[in-house]
Amino acid sequence: SSILQEDRNGCALHGALKLLDAIKGVVPIVHASAGCGVNARFVDNAPHAAVGRHFRGVLETSATTLYEKHVVFGGTARLREQIKNTLKVLNGDLYVVASGCVPEVVGDDVPAMIKEARDQRFPVIGISTPGFKGNAYAGYELAAQGVVEGLAGLFEAGGEARAGRVNLLGVVPEQDAFWEGDLLELEALLGSIGLEASRLVGIGQDVKHWKNALHARLSLVVSPWGLGAARFLHERCG
Predict the structure, then answer these.
(1) In terms of DSSP H, where are the helices of 43-75?
(2) What is the pTM of this model?
(3) For residue 5, is pLDDT > 60?
């Protein structure tokens, strides 16, 4: 008990990236300082884990790596360049710009860069996830709501809800060693009464499942951190 094996106390950006990493087909674009992108991969791992899956994750993460000059002059142009380069070299079904503290403080026009990409018919959305908005759990909440709002803007959010489909919200990826098992068990329990559960994150879950979430019958929220996404789905998609 005297050793903290896995520190899970990250900031909002870290929690958001954990959610995005748990959705197959999503390519995060970290719009923040270089340290933010690295810490997002190391914050919940023991030091000896640095060379392995999470070190490889750092190399595969698209990031604007903002420096002092971007604080002074803004990093909007740098984000435009990074979105363009990411679309060229990384294949994905959905590209999500996650903004950290620096661009939020200096006032980078992230929505304008998102609009430019979407005007060219690229599936790009943005979420505001600076660390000062809370911890990793708050980051999950911001990202989950941001993804469903972004998809509703990219794709048709109306239509008739599919009978029996239930969205599972509120389980924060990697904040508990058994998070995927919990979701699988919830899916099995709902299936035993004839309901089709969408876990949304973890094994076998991809962007298509989040699109389908817009047409679910209801959302089952198992922690306060899923309420924002559930309320949006209720108000916008019925």
Answers:
(1) 53-59, 68-73
(2) 0.86
(3) no
